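Researcher: Batch entry, complex prediction.
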Amino acid sequence: MTARTLLGLLVAGLVLAALAALPLFAGPYAVTLMIGMTGYVVLATAWGLFSGPTRYVSLATVAFFGIGAYTVGVFSETLPYPLVLLVAALIGLAVALVVGLSTLRLAGVYFVIFTFGLAELIRQLVTWYEVNVTGTLGRYIFLPVTPEGIYWQLLALAAATFLFSWGIGRTRWGLALKVIGDDEVVASHCGIDITRLKLALFAVSAVIITLVGAIQAPRWTYIEPSIAFNPTISFLTLIMALLGGADRLWGPLLGAIPLFLLFEWLSANFPNHYPIILGLVFIAIVFLLPKGVLAAVESRLRKGGAR
Amino acid sequence: MSELLALDGLTKRFGGLTAVNAVSFSLERGEVVGLLGPNGSGKTTVLNMISGFLPPTGGRIALNGEAISGLRPNRIARKGVARTFQLVRALPSLTVAENVVTALAFGRRTLWGKAAHEAAHAHLAAVGLAGRADQPAGALTYIDQKRMELARALAAEPELLLLDEWLAGLNPTELRIGIDLILSLKERGITVLLVEHVMDAIRALCGRAIVMNAGRKIADGPTAETLRDPEVVRAYLGDGHA
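Model: Structure tokens for the complex:
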């Protein structure tokens, strides 16, 4: 390990400690804001973990997010909290493996549509089950978790996600992901098992997303399928990761923070026009920064340097 | 000499088109063999089936007596088959060295870190790309990309190397360098199957030539004799010249 990586880890650790200490100084609104923001930072980073190198656009984010939230809704009164999180992660993993095995051979737009359909399918299945079997649509979640507790859990998950992302970039699997992003035919002819690698990455990404849903669930107190499986979550995650640049470690973070704050401000000040403005922001990002902020800054710098 | 590769009744159909029709031949270890034929005769399709890029419709491919037909390319690569592509496939966002490290890291020896970088530099030097290791692969010229692709294929330490028109598009000086490079592989004992249109190169390199036409094998033997075979001449030049 070089001095530079040690320094980087030290700085990252200090930033993490400062962020963790925030609730001790800030008020409840700031904590609420930080929960939402950290949640989206993790969602976008986990999304980019799989979609950045493979260039598969997944709209299944909310499928896993909702699975996490619902697992907490179902088991919160019967199992101890850490076990609930573990069950949520395992369900997310199982669904990701089944979905991954059956869909990762789909290419391009077929994969996008499949993942969107998957999220809707799971939402309808949960709705059907709640109406016909349990007899009620909503569920209450009464857990003795404080907002600070939720924030710290999300922060720990964020740290773990970044550590995983950064760590894999240093192994030969990180190189394999770059190769897959460039040319899958060459990748497989060099001995890389592309299907297995994609599946593993999809599963890790899905488990992280499931945990975000599970950790955030107690915030709602009351959940029903239209809340836990709201497709806007998938779209927001996607556009945040794209704005920052999905194929870079810090890209999704740089997209998630400004967009989360913007959407928060918009929904507070323009509640009636919020969806319209949201749509316009989506279009603007795709037109103006198709490869993300980081890539745009880098190419600007490179041009400046060449001059 | 022992048999390395054996094709038995290899067939590939795309819908109603039979691109490769019951082709059988075998390669001895250490041979350099040319696979010839007019455009569209199925040569590249044969290579694609050997490397696992396309699954065969029928027939069998065996490497060292073990069936490899229908395996995915990554499995076949690890059994000792490497290739270059007709249209050169660099990994443009990687550096030249990373291109070669890929084959080392996922090849049969799984080299990584310092050992992989040293090995990559050695492979690059062997194809004349010493000192270019840190350049982006996308910035190389066509011939240098071809060299890099060959270094990548050799880094996998193959027993069988498939070259798909690797010499096409080179000028006479480059061609001379290219031929010398392939001759050096022969000295290292690597078995090479090359699809090629450059006749001078085939005469210089290949002791034996296999000729295909319209998906079938029409000739197989010592290069000079095979090229004089009336059926081969007819396939290339038409009836009047046979």
